[in-house]
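Re: [help] complex structure
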Amino acid sequence: MPLSDDELKDAIVAKATKAPKPQLYIKDFYKCDPDSKARRIKNVANELVREERLMFWSSGSTTMYGIPSRIKNEDDKDQSN
Amino acid sequence: MPKHDTPLLDELEKGPWPSFVTDIKRQAETKPECWDILGQLEVSFVDKITHWKHGGIVGVFGYGGGIVGRYSDMPKQFPGVAHFHTVRLNQPSSKFYNTAKLRAICDLWEKYGSGMTNMHGSTGDLVLLGTTTENLEPLFYDLTHDLKQDLGGSGSNLRTPACCLGTARCEYSCYDTASLCHHLTMHYQDEIHRPAFPYKFKFKMSGCPNDCVASIARSDFSVIGTWKDDIRIDQAEVAKYISGDNKPNGGAKSNASAFDMERDVLALCPTGCMRMKGDELQIDNKNCTRCMHCLNMMPKACRPGLVKGASILCGAKAPILDGAQMATLTIPFIEINPDNDYEAVIDVIEEIWDWWMTVGKNRERVGETIQRVGLPTFIKVLGLDPIPQHVKIPRENPYVFWTSDEVPGGFDRDVREFRKKHAQ
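Output below.
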């Protein structure tokens, strides 16, 4: 049975918090709820961006998701290099 | 006065052709950061590497596309381009806009950016080159509130849909490309502005098989206008081409030698489906592959049929992982019906997305996914029956892999019994 929206949001945030790299592809979140369709997971991830619990990060050609504080840390390091 | 010495770039100003170096120098007179573009590019010419870095967290709130982060890796030497982000604006369908709109965009870009533009980007966007992170939100506010102008797509989003001029300006067009393009743009706003896919996904729409937006080579989902019935022939106009009263190819070949029906049309038909019987031009329409050559050469004499729609082709891309790939004809004829909001086209798009979002690997275009799993799997996903047009090279591969449900009696059938029947 698919997770509720709130359960799915918590699972996505937990995944993004624990992942070794701060940036994740949308596909990385699919495993958070194998019973949900890919488009639902995308919509929930985008809602988390609007709630500022996730943020977008772009490589230029690919857009990824991550926890804002983790991504900002990584970006600051990159800018100072 | 130039801020940097650029002897290598200065070479590009010599000769009779326009030079982007001259253009940037002119712009630098009012936008001094443009000197740093030239300075950094000169260093890149010497070092033979780029000094741009891409990506990062730039963007406007809630949008995961439309702005491509760009930074210099030499910010101390070239502070004017330390941040130099690109903004993509969604072009109007068929690129119909007036000079007032263009002036308003340029004025806004002089205020918030470098003033440099790229008209148009490969996907068709109005591309604004070079601004800072702090200027993005105010620029976006003015764009959307004053100019009613939205951003285009970038990253793993649906990219800005693009189309040819279509029925607005072209007699060949078999459907209203601008209408379909606008409808898909509005219908899929979320997919354009927020990442949805394993990688980029492009729609392109051409009104006829001349394919003026090169959708067959450049888009994941190509909609090319076509017709089902016979090419309409006006024999009186055919006679005028033969007599020289009509200029072939719309007059484009007026300086060439006199029109020769046999040499210029019949012999160039790829399937040899045309012939002259006396003074009458005849076409075996069943063998016509819609190459458009006869229609292009004799536009007054040959016109598309009246039962119009489109072909759907999938999976083209420029080289990223595996090299360039042309699209594969997937659906030879589909209805293009604005009265039901293009239901047939949208059903196919969403079938493809649901499958590719699950099966596609990260950074894999849908054409690469099709190549990896095989066309038979892809057409099965879409619920299509195989047709001869799906076969790229007949009898190339001696191995045919059947599934159990494709074999009468399945894999559990009694082979000895089957062979007895076969022997009779």
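Helices of chain A lie at 5-18, 38-50, 68-80.
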